[in-house]
Every structure is written in structure tokens, then in C-alpha cells.
Amino acid sequence: MTVYSFYIFDRHAECIYKRRWLPRPTSVAGKSQIPGAVGSSGQTVRAGDDDAKLVFGTVFSLRNMVRKLGGEEDNFVSYATSQYKLHYYETPTNIKFVMLTDLKSPSMRIALQQIYINLFVEYVVKNPLSPVEHPGGVGVNNELFEESLEQFVTRVLA
Amino acid sequence: MCVSTKLHPRSALAVFSLIIINKAGGLIYQREFQAGLRKLSTNDYLVLAGTFHGVHAITRSITPKLPLQNTASPVASSPGTSAPTTSGFSYPNPGVPVSGLEYLETDKFRLTCFQTLTGTKFLLFTDPMTGSVETIVNKIYELYADYVMKNPFYQLEMPVRCEAFDRHLGAWLRGRT
Amino acid sequence: MAAPRHSAMLSISNASTPQSTSSDKTQVQQPQSPAGTSGLRVPSNRKTIYDRHLNRSRNAELSRASFAYLFGEMVSYAQRRVTGIQDLEKRLNEQGYPLGLRLLDLLFYRATSTSSSALSSSSTSSSPPNRPLRILTLLHLIHGPLWRLLFQRSADALEHSVSPDTPNEYMITDNEPLVNTYISVPREMSMLNCAAFVAGIIEGVCDGCGFEAKVSAHNQPTEMWPSRTVFLVRFGDSVMEREKVLERAGVK
């Protein structure tokens, strides 16, 4: 299973955290790779800003559509195209967690919930130095959260 | 799939409703087969079709692009492994054409979207446990090709009002359940 | 399913263009040229459709979808510049009429060659088919052999009008007309029945046998057969008079 990217959106529709993982180069093209060019643990890259906006627009529209058809208590869980799968989890405080993975991955709902409870609440919400709101990602981009997210994705989910 | 069909004989076959969207994003058909989803007004369905049409295009455009690492030989890279590459990146499933949303899952239903080569979209809402949705969608496409496209009174891209299509669709779905 | 109808149409359409083929035969001398200027393609074995036995395509199968699209275009074409439903039905009827006239010959030809030895190429050995003289014989010909030639099955019912005022009216019922398989008529045109085309074919067959008649198609849906169609055959007065004379004379 491969995780491609991960986003957190706050209740103001702002992207407060995003991260992209590049898969191991062997999975892309297996021939004549330059060894050591990329660490096998993956590499983080700043995704384009537009990307986050498009992702938000998509999940926002789909969430509203699902609520309209399934009722207020229905939840949008995931969708898949021929290329990737998008997982969605929304907290009661209206923070949205989005993860893009490959098609082989099972439901990531529990994983996203764990990221929320064990990482976000622990290292961001409970951090006395972190502000209540996170404009521009302030407070989310602390070392503890990023480190443990990295570990969670590369060790637990891989 | 087979196991779940046996375990939930009734819910496993639930097909809630069908929506057909033309290539411009307009709603041309909407029909409910079984209760299970909330009923919307005609206007809401029109909005839903238009929204979905746009979202479908976006889900296609946000497909992750994986940078190719073999900078040493970017042109003469292996031709078989990564067909749809353009300068420097490949898609996760290189052999498969990039598509928009194909299915969506929620707690209460599953939405399967089938897009024809000409751009018409079939949206089928089923119970999450329903097996072999693909068979159902293919059959619907077949009935559409027969009773809508072969009908001399049907105008392309316009709302589908074909009594024979309604009749055969209803009869086939009833025959399944 | 629509096999015989197409094969019939094929042979007819070719029978109507003898000139183009005769000019084509000169082209056959150079088989290398890819049929450029003529329009007709000559098979590589140089056998045109005239060299083939007429019964060759009797059981050949043709695409039902192709027929559906072709007929759909015929309806669309007839629909242009029409003033109303009756006008549209008249046009469809007119499209079917010549087909019925020409179909008759093939029908008779095939009716004999199947009854006797099908292998003998000349049909002269078997008794030549008789043109129907009485109304009932004609109607049976339509109900059975004609329907089988067109649709590979007999029609579903044949009735005589019960009303004493209209002894010249007969009804042939088809529960599921092939031509209407894929057609859904819009609600505002609910009186229309595209099987008017088939009615035209029947009219052509009747006229070809010397029975002046008007044939129309009417919707008579039932729960089980939503596209059930009744073809109303109304014979002319001269036919009815002749019928009486023939009856007195004991002609069958």
C-alpha cells in the first residue's frame, strides 16, 4: 500500500497542513535507477497550493452531495478513480482529514481517526504553544506532529 | 462478493436510483427504484448533476503524478512500463487510462459512476453491500443503447423520455430482485 | 431475428439496379482496381449477386441493430416536413408499399422451392405457385409465409370484422412488431404507430395480387404486449364484388 498525500483542512476551509510522499522509485520504473538518489523511506515535497484547493473543493462538494442524499447522519467515506483512492474523515469540530492512497489500500477511516486522536489532538491541540486557530498552518507544523505522522505513515501503514 | 450476497439476500440487491448525465453536465434521466435515499426536488437533482460533472473532472485532474527518478536517461526509458508519461512523471497505474471518480462510498450507499467513451455518465446508487454492480451498470448501458439511442424520436443530449427504456429497465431490475 | 427481411431487401435493392451492375461487369476485367469509380464492389471470385442462388441468403442472418438504426433514420427522414401524424404514417406507408410489391415475387419463388426439392436450381420442375384468388387465401399468405419471410414467425392473429356494416375489413395482429422494438413514441404523438411501414408492405402485397386494399396500423396495447399492433385491411368494393362472383362459381 502506498500513501501519496495527506491534507488537513480547518473549519474555515483553509488547508492547514499538507504533505506528499513519493513512492519508492522502484515502483515507478524498475530500470536503471540511480541508487541512493531517494531514500527508501520516502521524501516529502510541498504540494502545489492549487492542489489543496482542488482537493478541498472536491471533498466539500461530495460531502454535501452525500448529506443531501443520505441524510445528515450519513458520512462520505472514500472514492476511487482508476488511479487512486481518496479517504475522508471529518471530526465533530469540522476539521477534515484527507488522504490519497493507491487502489490496493483498505478503508483508511480508522487510520485517519487515529491520526486525529493520537497525533493531532495530542501534539497540536494539547500543545500550549499552539494557537487555537492555525492560519497558514501555524501550530500544526511542529516537530512532534510531523515526526510522528511520518512514522505512522511509513511504519504503521506501509 | 458472493458471500455477502448470501448473507444479505434482501439488502444485497438494493438498487436505489439511477441518474444519467449528458456530456455537457446536464441531467437527462433520473429514476428511483427503491426507497433508501432522501428524495430531492427536480431542481436539486439538476444541481447535483452539474456539481458532480464538475467534481468528476477535478477528481481526474488531481490524480497524483509520480516524478520519474531516472534522470540519466529520460527519453530512452523502458517503453513498456510507463506508457502515459510525459516529461518526467508517471501516473500510479501507468497501464490504465486516467479516469475521474469511479465509485464513492458512504455509510449508507455506494455510488458507481460509469462514463461512456462519448462522455455520458451513468450514476447508480446502490446499497453498500450490493454485489456485482458492474453487471447492473453494463446492462443499463445496453438498455440505453437499445431503447434510447435506437429510438428515432429521441433527440441527442435531451432528457430521456422513452417509455420502452423505462419499461425494460424496471422489468430487468425487478427480475433480479 | 430480422434475417429474412434483410435478405429480401438485399435482393430487391439489387434487382432494381441492373444498369449499374452491367456497367460494372466491364470493370471486372481488372480485378486489381479497388472498385473506384463504379460504386458496386465485385467480390474477388467475380461472382456478383446475380450469380448466386436466390435462396442462398434465405437463412442468412443480418444485424438487428443495423436494421434498427436504418429504420430509425427512415422514420426521422419521413418526419421531416410532415404536417401531422397521419401525414407521417402516410409517408411510412409509402415507403413500405414498393417493398411489398416486389417482395411478392420472392415470396412465391421461395414458397415453391421449399415445398419441392430445394436443391434443383430450376423452379420449373415443381408446380408453379398460384396467385391467391380469394381473400382468405391471400390473408393466410400474409399471415403465414409473408410474416415468416419478414420476421421469421407467423403473425399472432387473423380476424374478420364482426360488424355487418364492414364486411370488407380484416385484422391481422402482431403482438410485438419487430419494427417497433426500440421505438418509444412521444406522448403527444400517442396515436402514431411506426408499423405503418409494415402496413405499406401488406398493401403492396395485396395490390400485387390484384386485391385493391387500404391497410393501416393501429396501437392496441395490452398489459402483456405493450406494443401490440393491429393491421386493419380494408378491401375495395371491386374486390368484394369479385369475391361474391368467385364464391358463386365455386373458385377456391
UniProtKB/TrEMBL annotation, chain A:
It is found in: Endoplasmic reticulum; Golgi apparatus, cis-Golgi network. Belongs to the TRAPP small subunits family. BET5 subfamily. One of its GO terms (biological process) is endoplasmic reticulum to Golgi vesicle-mediated transport. Keywords: Endoplasmic reticulum, ER-Golgi transport, Golgi apparatus, Transport. GO terms for cellular component: endoplasmic reticulum; Golgi apparatus; TRAPP complex. Part of the multisubunit transport protein particle (TRAPP) complex. This is Trafficking protein particle complex subunit. It comes from Penicillium malachiteum. Coiled coil: none annotated. PANTHER family: TRAFFICKING PROTEIN PARTICLE COMPLEX SUBUNIT (PTHR23249), TRAFFICKING PROTEIN PARTICLE COMPLEX SUBUNIT 1 (PTHR23249:SF16). The keyword Transport applies. InterPro entries: Longin-like_dom_sf, TRAPPC.
From TrEMBL, chain B:
Keywords: Endoplasmic reticulum, ER-Golgi transport, Golgi apparatus, Transport. Belongs to the TRAPP small subunits family. TRAPPC4 subfamily. SUPFAM superfamilies: SNARE-like (SSF64356). It comes from the Eukaryota. One of its GO terms (cellular component) is endoplasmic reticulum. Residues 71-88 have a biased composition (Low complexity). It is found in: Endoplasmic reticulum; Golgi apparatus, cis-Golgi network; Golgi apparatus. Part of the multisubunit transport protein particle (TRAPP) complex. This is Trafficking protein particle complex subunit. Residues 70-90 are annotated as: Disordered. Coiled coil: none annotated. One of its GO terms (biological process) is endoplasmic reticulum to Golgi vesicle-mediated transport. It comes from Penicillium malachiteum.
TrEMBL record, chain C:
Gene3D superfamilies: Trafficking protein particle complex subunit 3. The lineage of its organism: Eukaryota, Fungi, Dikarya, Ascomycota, Pezizomycotina. It comes from the Eukaryota. Plays a key role in the late stages of endoplasmic reticulum to Golgi traffic. GO terms for biological process: endoplasmic reticulum to Golgi vesicle-mediated transport. Transmembrane segments: none annotated. Part of the multisubunit TRAPP (transport protein particle) complex. One of its GO terms (cellular component) is TRAPPI protein complex. It is found in: Endoplasmic reticulum; Golgi apparatus, cis-Golgi network. The keyword Magnesium does not apply. This is Trafficking protein particle complex subunit. Residues 10-36 have a biased composition (Polar residues). Residues 1-53 are annotated as: Disordered. SUPFAM superfamilies: Ligand-binding domain in the NO signalling and Golgi transport (SSF111126). Belongs to the TRAPP small subunits family. BET3 subfamily. The keyword Endoplasmic reticulum applies. InterPro entries: NO_sig/Golgi_transp_ligand-bd (IPR024096), TRAPP-I_su5 (IPR016696), TRAPP_component (IPR007194). CDD domains: TRAPPC5_Trs31. Keywords: Endoplasmic reticulum, ER-Golgi transport, Golgi apparatus, Transport.
